[in-house]
Design goal:
By secondary structure, the protein is an alpha/beta fold. The protein is built from 7 helices and 8 strands. A 5-stranded parallel beta sheet has the order 2-1-3-4-5, with helices on both faces. A 3-stranded antiparallel beta sheet has the order 6-7-8, with no helix packed on it. It starts with a helix and ends with a strand.
């Protein structure tokens, strides 16, 4: 019996960890404490982790390691446009470099309320999902797994930001999900 099968028989958690062992996540955040928290949670789930603290480093590491998903801070420092634009710019650059079927999904972490202009820019830049920084880590990894499913060749709809569902054709919230 292989070690993967043996691990899967030991516990349900081991089965979950072995299924994601070959996947790589790129976390990009200017806060080293946030990176440490995300890295620990991802490694416990069996992911390999690559970290960046600015958009230039995130793009370089994305090209070098070809991660399965990218989780990026909206306020990541951007080498050309300054703070507050880096997360969207990383997604835009990846969208230009990779065909849709090969592009890693980008999950944008936000710590503030987004205006309709920023939401529209994120959608146009190819951001697959947005999630609040204060959300439970299990929610973040559930969304990552959803995007890493067998059909990554099409966007997941509707686009979600925090607790608001956004219609893909509009920039206005269409429904607020109660907490």
């Amino acid at each position: 019996m292989t070690s993967v099968r043996a691990a899967a028989k030991r516990s349900p958690d081991a089965r979950r960890e072995t299924r994601t062992v070959s996947r790589t996540l790129l976390f990009a955040d200017r806060n080293p404490d946030a990176l440490e928290l995300l890295r620990g949670a991802a490694e416990r789930r069996g992911y390999r982790v690559v970290e960046a603290q600015d958009s230039a480093q995130a793009l370089r590491l994305a090209r070098e390691h070809r991660p399965d998903a990218v989780v990026v801070d909206l306020d990541l420092p951007h080498y050309r446009f300054g703070p507050g634009t880096g997360g969207v710019e990383v997604s835009r650059a990846l969208a230009k470099e990779y065909p849709l079927a090969e592009r890693p999904p980008v999950v944008l972490r936000v710590g503030r309320t987004l205006g309709s202009r920023t939401i529209r820019e994120a959608i146009e830049a190819g951001v697959a999902d947005c999630i609040e920084k204060a959300c439970p880590l299990a929610d973040l990894f559930d969304r990552i797994e959803r995007h890493l499913g067998p059909r990554r060749d099409r966007p997941v709809a509707p686009f979600r930001w925090a607790s608001t569902a956004i219609d893909e054709l509009s920039t206005m919230p269409v429904r607020t999900v109660p907490r």
